[in-house]
Task: structure prediction
Amino acid sequence: MLNQKNIARFRTVVTRIFSEDEGISSRDALRRYYGPLEEQDQTVEYVRGVVDLLNLTTKSIDGMVVLDAGCGYGMMCMLLATLGAKEAHGIDIMEDRMGVFKECLSNLKAGGTELPVFPIVGNAMRSDYDDDKFDLILSVEAISHYREPDLFFEECARILRPGGVLLISDGNNGANPRIVTECKELWRRFEQGPTGRIGPHIIVEAYEDIRKGMIREAYPEWSEQDVAAVARGTSGMTRDEILEACRAKEEQGVIPDQTFAGDECPVHPGIGAVLERFHHPRELAGRIEVFGFKTQVYSYFGGAGGNPAIRFANHVLKALTKYTLKYARGYRIVATKV
Result:
């Protein structure tokens, strides 16, 4: 799959998308995620990284019907189509990102490149896809954002064909103590503030403050003290759950006590997404197996840059996953539906 023809085809896609002559409403947002792809060497690295991931399945993508669950702006789907997928579907709950994804496809079509790519706005844990539809499902940097990953595994078991593969890649390796510490600090900042940048993330409004806004809107007569108390006690809840807690306080005088203690990943009150939750890969694999899968876990140290020595070292580290997993930043899980 990693050959000059496929790289050139994907390079054409990238060049067209980022052309200033082709209007995309949120090109700046797209560039924040994929801007480096405008450089030729970064395009090659991205393709190599995805091919390395696909190679873990030991199957060819040619002719496959594939799904990118949590597809964002859709770059992965477009690459999967150029690599030979018969159909590349993408699902994501974020309507703004999916709007940009669809604009990209329209612009490609206008330029003479029509890809078998099919984006929909939806929930990957409760989709409308038919049973046994897909040969391959990818979850790349998405599993750490699911509030209830078991629902996702159950859905994958439904929509994957027998022998189909769920391929998970994530950079929040809960077997690595350093990653756990980093994640918990990120949780605290997103839940309680202050706003601003932390690593690659920008905190616009703390989750506790978002909850305060919801409560004030629903109960404008409440004192700031009551608003703050209920906001603190509804950590991890979404809008409907928060309003239910408000009703209990209003009718029974009960202040909710689900406060943020630092050991649970906070939940965005508006959309229900969680931020950078870490999972221990082997424990996660065990949960996947409950739904009728065979799994294999791999350490991931990188190597998509192409340096032969680094690629060889990373191949060895992957082969020694039993010993290297606790040092890896990322992990990969190959789950085959029995």
User: Anything to note?
Assistant: The two ends are 26 Å apart (CA to CA).
